[in-house]
Design brief:
By secondary structure, the protein is of the alpha/beta class. The chain has 7 helices and 9 strands.
């Protein structure tokens, strides 16, 4: 099971995924992230899925680039947000000192640990000085295929160990939540805000 299989899953299930996520109430997380940014800051929605969060950020006056690896989700998110969504892999991020914040909600958790480390390094490079990252992982120690996709789960301990190998990033906040989707309340998530130092 690889990241490409995961992209195939999202292309094949794009309509279903879009419908199940686009209207999910996520204000608390969005506000927690935006509270650390200046008005009008430049945000990268990194793995934007349905475009739900990118649309909110745009409506609040932020400048937003949004990308996703799934061609079909790029199409749906583009229709929803009214902006062009760039189809690209996480590993292709090549911006330098461009963004004030990177929003990677439930997205980079699909990368095996080595690729995750490489991508996190690219995210640090893409951030301006003192920029922030929000990201989230399913809570646990599992790594492998689940429901047709690759997942790398994290706990506070495993993420701290992982972060120790990433230059230029420090932990600012971490907290756990229950899944916000209906009938998913038993699933726990590790939420993280990281800062470029």
């Amino acid at each position: 099971m690889t990241y490409n299989n995961t992209l195939g899953y999202y292309d094949d299930h794009a309509d279903q995924f879009y419908k199940s996520t686009v209207n999910v109430e996520f204000t608390t997380m969005q506000e927690r992230f935006l509270a650390k940014l200046q008005p009008g800051s430049y945000i990268l929605d990194f793995g934007c899925g349905s475009g739900r969060d990118a649309k909110i950020f745009l409506e609040k006056g932020y400048k937003v680039d949004a990308v996703d690896g799934s061609v079909e989700l790029c199409r749906l998110a583009g229709e929803y947000t009214g902006i062009k969504i760039k189809n690209m892999l996480f590993q292709d991020l090549s911006e330098v000192d461009r963004y004030d914040g990177i929003w990677a909600c439930s997205s980079i958790l699909h990368l095996p640990i080595k690729e995750l480390a490489e991508v996190m390094g690219r995210m640090v490079t893409a951030l301006k000085a003192n920029g922030i990252i929000y990201t989230s992982f399913k809570y646990g120690t599992f790594a492998g295929e689940r429901n047709g996709r690759y997942f790398r789960d994290m706990t506070e301990e495993t993420f701290a160990e992982f972060l120790g190998g990433i230059d230029g990033l420090e932990m600012e906040e971490q907290w756990t939540t229950s899944d916000v989707r209906p009938e998913r309340g038993e699933e726990k998530w590790l939420n993280l805000i990281l800062r470029k130092r």
